[in-house]
Amino acid sequence: QGLKDVIGKDMLIGVALNKWQSSGGVPEATAIVRKHFNSVVAENCMKSENLQPREGKFYFDAADSLVAFARDNNQTLTGHCLVWHSQVPRWFFKDKAGRTVTRDVLVGRMRRHIKKVVGHFKGKVRGWDVVNEAIEDDGSFRKSPFYSIIGEDFIEIAFRAAHEADPGAELYYNDYSLSNPAKRDAVCRLVRRLKSKGVRIDAVGMQSHNGLDYPDLSAYEASIDSFAACGVKVMVTELDLNVLPSPKGFSGARIEQDFEYHKRLNPYPEALPDSIYRKFEQRYLELFSIYRRHRHQMSRITLWGISDRDSWLNDFPVHGRTNYSLFFDRNYAEKPVVSKIIELWEGR
Ligand code: G3I
C-alpha cells in the first residue's frame, strides 16, 4: 500500500512535479505518483514568468499537460502560485520606457494575470497559492515591488480577483519559516484581517523546507495550532529536509574557487552515511507524528519533489550539490522512511 492509502483517509498527500514528470515523460515518477500520492502541484510551470513571459502572451501548454496528468492519474491539483516577487517576468513592474509602473497599472496587471490564469484552470484546480512569501521573518511586509508599488492591500486585491475568477476554488496564503513567532503572528493578523473583510481564505500553507535541526519542532507545532485558531486549515506545502550544512556567508563564486569550502558544504558526494540517514528518517517521523496529531486541523501535506535527483536543494545555495532530501533516491528507489511513515500513521 502507498502513503495515500493511509494518510489519504485524513488529508491530501501530494508531491510537486517538474515539467518532465508532469508531461508523463518519466515512467518511474508516474508510477510513484499513482502509488503514493493523491495530489500534485507544479514545481514551476504555473508561475507567472512561465505563464505570461510577455505582457498579454500566455503559454499554457506545460500547465495544461499537468492538468491532463492529474486527471489521468486521479490526482487533485493545486495551483502554485499567482502572486510572488520571484519568478515574475521583468516586464511586470516596468513601462516601455523602463520606468517603474504606477499603482493603477500594477493593480491592473496583477488582476489581469490572476483572472486569466484562474479562469483558464477554472474547475480543474482545487485551490491556489494566491500570494506567496509576502511577510518577512520579523513580521513586517516584504518590501517587494507588489508591496512597494501597491501597498499592503495588494494581498486583498489578489484574493478577491482569484475568487471572482473561480468562486469554487480554495484560496491559500503560502510562506516559509512560519514557526518563527513574529512571522507566524503577522500571518495570523493577515488571515484575520482578510476574514473580517469577507475575503475568502481557506488555508495557510507552511512551506516546510526543513533541516535536520530546524525548525524547533515545538514552535512548528504551535504554528499549526495558531493558524487553525484563525479559522483556516493548515497545509504543509513544500516539505523536504536539507541534510547538508549551509554555513553563513556562502556564495557560488567562493565555492568554485575553494575546494575545501566546497567539501564542507557537500560532505557526502557519493552516498549519505547511515548515521545521517538515521537522523533524516527520525526527523521525518517526528514531523509526520506532528501531522498525524494535528490531522483535524490540516488538509494537505505536499513533498517538494519526488526524488533526490530532481530536488531544488541540489542547486541551493550552490549549483550541483548532492542532497538527500526526499523519499526516493536518485534512481527513484523508495527509501525505508516511506513504509515507516505508513506504519506510524496506522498507529502501529
Ligand atoms: O527551465 C530552465 C532551463 O530552461 C534553463 O536552462 C535553466 C538555467 O538555469 O533554468 C531552468 O529554470 C530553473 C527552474 O527552477 C527549473 O529547473 C530556474 O533557473 C530555477 O531558478 C528554478 O528554481 C525553482 C525555484 O523555486 C525558483 O525560485 C525551483 O525549481 C523550485 O523548486 C523553487 O520552488 C520554490 C517555490 O516555488 C516557493 N517556495 C520556495 C521553493 C524553493 O525555492
UniProtKB/TrEMBL annotation:
Cite a single GO MF annotation.
endo-1,4-beta-xylanase activity
> What keywords sit in the KW lines?
Carbohydrate metabolism, Glycosidase, Hydrolase, Polysaccharide degradation, Signal
InterPro entries documented for this protein: GH, GH10, GH10_AS, GH10_dom
SUPFAM superfamilies from the UniProt entry: (Trans)glycosidases
Q: Which Gene3D superfamilies match?
A: Glycosidases
Domain GH10 positions: 1-344
Per the record, a Pfam family? Glyco_hydro_10
Q: Which reaction does it catalyse?
A: Endohydrolysis of (1->4)-beta-D-xylosidic linkages in xylans
Under which EC number(s) is this enzyme classified? 3.2.1.8
Q: Does the keyword Hydrolase apply?
A: yes
Catalytic residues per the record? E238
- Hydrolase listed as a keyword: yes
Q: What is one process in the GO biological process aspect for this record? A: polysaccharide catabolic process
Give the family, as the similarity comment puts it. Belongs to the glycosyl hydrolase 10 (cellulase F) family.
**Name of this protein:** Beta-xylanase
Record organism: Marseilla massiliensis
